[in-house]
Amino acid sequence: MAGKPKLHYTKGRGKMESIRWLLAAAGVEFEEEFIETKEDLEKLRNDGVLLFEQVPMVEMDGMKMVQTRAILSYIAAKYNLYGKDLKERAWIDMYVEGTTDLMGMIMYLPFQPADTKEKNLALIIERATSRYFPVYEKALKDHGQDYLVGNKLSWADVHLLEAILMAEECKPDILSAFPLLQAFKGRISNIPTIKKFLQPGSQRKPPTDEKFVAVVRKIFNI
After folding, report:
1. At a CB cut-off of 8 Å and minimum separation 6, what does 217 contact?
2. What is the C-alpha R_g of the chain?
3. How far is CA 169 from CA 76, 90, 173, in A?
4. In Å, what is the CA distance from 202 to each residue of 29, 30, 73, 185, 205?
5. CA 106, 107, 113, 117: dihedral to nearest 10 degrees?
6. Which residues contact 59 (CB under 8 A, 6 or more apart)?
7. Scanning 65, 68, 124, 187, which has its CA 20 to 30 A from the CA of 54?
């Protein structure tokens, strides 16, 4: 039997967090090897295991996979979270790209200069409530089903829940105008594998704080 996937990244969320979420939702146990210093990253680069000298990197099924999107789509396809046909896959991809855009804005917020944070936080809240969440609310309303695509749990649902929880860290009542998304959040959060991941002590990482920002800047020389 193949060993558990091994995730190489820092101890924070970053681009690896969606990979942690998807593996957890699929019920897949994984190990983590943390990059804690610049030297740890240099060793991976020097060993030639990072295709583009970048992380995240996931060791899985005999591969050393890089590029977040490639890793996520592989996991989604392997664990039957990627739709039943090309059209469903296209919808999942579109929904995932939307939540990726929103999460990217939130992910970079702690790394921005203090004098722009308030402005950027306001922009995140505006985009979430006027551009992104209305799309998912409408999708759930139009088809009347529990999941975004194909009436079955998919990568799109897992990604949307992750985005919702990140957005709520920015503004706790951000879903106040979206009753179907509130219900969706409750449903998806109670799927046993996801419920377990949301419990304290799981491999889910906390929000990025100033201390972690300093660590990341040092490792990646930014």
Report:
1. 111
2. 18
3. 26, 29, 9
4. 11, 11, 23, 19, 8
5. 10
6. 5, 6, 8, 65
7. 124
